[in-house]
Specification:
globular, binds 2-acetamido-2-deoxy-beta-D-glucopyranose
């Protein structure tokens, strides 16, 4: 009997190891990358007082694309930047690429990544094929000497790859550019628990002490996962979406400045929030919003330790043997649309009037959102809504 029990126990633990083993690499990478995601968001958020939207996975894939063609210190810096350097294994050339590819596919994300190189520099086919395969990234030549034409090519590419959801990534193109890296992504919350537009009403949103705006405020009652973090004095609500993705919406207490949350968020803090969530009956009010944000990553990346690619010592020999290739700019444009609509799996249970009336959580002041893939906890987007009437 005893033997049998222990055998069972061992079998059970072997089983759990092998089940964990399948996802471990992707989960480990997601954990390591989460710090890049939160640091990039903090950096971008700290440079403005307005709405923010960052595709952290898009930025990761863009830098990974470059890393695939970089060598020496330039490559190490890129891998370190996105947090995966310690996962590189000797003799396993394609390890990081494989894991990132799996992550991209698991999270069902289709950000557009384009590397636009000046006309007279030909990228190696092996590089172009590799980044297409792993990151769905595209490498194209453009004629930077003709600014209008170059701008047109880049913007056409992004419109095509995002189904017109993202436009006008670049405004002007420097004719001296050697290579521009473009990242574009869009998120449309396809809620598993959609809001009913019948209950959406104009309501007040307190941008700050002096500025109150009217916004279309959505309303829904139901069971939600909710938590409160007393350290940051922030309420955390989870809104599940299609494809195993969820949005955490963070509402700092009225006496808390949202910049405090912006600055203090880390991968660990984020995972702590997810772990704390508990199911509860709730009535929530969330404004509709639609963000279109441009992020000049060339401005933020150097302070996150990614500098070499922009300098004269950039080693991009894997992209082209042509001397002195370096990156001129990294631009990201992100669209986030949040309204009542639900995904195809929508359950039509939205019963507004529950008995007894549940507590109400109202997002009527600046809030932060984190979109992530639930199984791996990979962070996909982080943003901030300061004024929902603006883009
Ligand atoms: C650039 O990277 C390649 C590949 O890692 C390496 O062989 C080469 O020595 C590097 N060049 C310089 C100048 O560091
Ligand atoms: C929205 O609510 C109204 C009023 O209760 C109801 O008649 C309608 O069927 C609901 N729509 C959906 C899509 O659930």
């Amino acid at each position: 009997m005893k033997m049998g029990f222990f055998t069972l126990l061992i079998e059970a633990s072997l089983l759990s190891v092998s089940v964990l083993g399948q996802t471990t690499d992707v989960e480990e990478l997601a954990i390591k990358n989460a710090d890049f995601a939160t640091r990039l968001y903090s950096k971008i958020a700290s440079s403005s007082d307005d709405n923010v939207a960052v595709s952290t996975l898009g930025a990761t894939l863009a830098l990974a694309t470059l890393a695939a063609g970089a060598g020496g210190a330039t490559q190490s810096e890129l891998l370190q930047g996105i947090g995966v350097d310690s996962m590189v294994k000797d003799g396993e050339q394609e390890r990081i690429q494989n894991i990132l590819q799996q992550l991209r596919e698991d999270a069902a994300q289709i950000p557009a990544t384009g590397l636009f190189i000046k006309q007279d520099v030909k990228a190696d086919d092996s590089f172009s094929n590799q980044v297409k395969q792993y990151y769905n990234a595209d490498v194209q030549n453009v004629n930077y000497a003709n600014g209008q034409q170059a701008k047109g090519s880049i913007n056409d590419y992004v419109r095509g790859r995002t189904g017109e959801k993202v436009r006008d990534v670049v405004e002007n193109v420097d004719p001296q550019s050697m290579a521009i890296l473009i990242s574009a992504a869009f998120f449309t919350g396809q809620w598993l628990q959609p809001f009913n537009a019948t209950f959406t009403q104009e309501d007040r949103f307190y941008v700050n002490k002096y500025n109150i705006v009217q916004v279309p405020m959505m309303l829904r009652s139901g069971k939600y996962y909710l938590a409160y973090d007393p350290t940051f004095k922030v309420g955390i609500l989870k809104l599940p979406c299609e494809n195993g993705i969820a949005m955490l919406v963070l509402l700092p207490d009225e006496d808390v400045d949202y910049t405090y949350v912006d600055e203090s968020m880390t991968g660990e803090v984020f995972r702590g929030w997810v772990a704390k969530l508990k199911k509860t009956k709730l009535e929530i009010q969330l404004p509709r919003f639609s963000l279109k944000q441009s992020n000049s990553l060339s401005v933020s990346l150097p302070s996150l330790g990614v500098k070499e690619i922009f300098g004269n010592t950039a080693n991009l020999t894997g992209i082209s043997s042509s001397e002195g290739l370096k990156l001129s700019e990294v631009e990201q444009k992100v669209a986030v649309d949040v309204d009542e609509s639900g995904g195809s799996l929508a359950e039509a249970s939205g019963n507004l009037f529950m008995n007894p009336l549940p507590p109400r959580l109202t997002f009527n002041r600046p809030f932060i959102f984190v979109v992530y893939h639930e199984v791996t906890k990979c962070i996909l987007y982080i943003g901030r809504v300061v004024d929902p009437t603006k883009n």
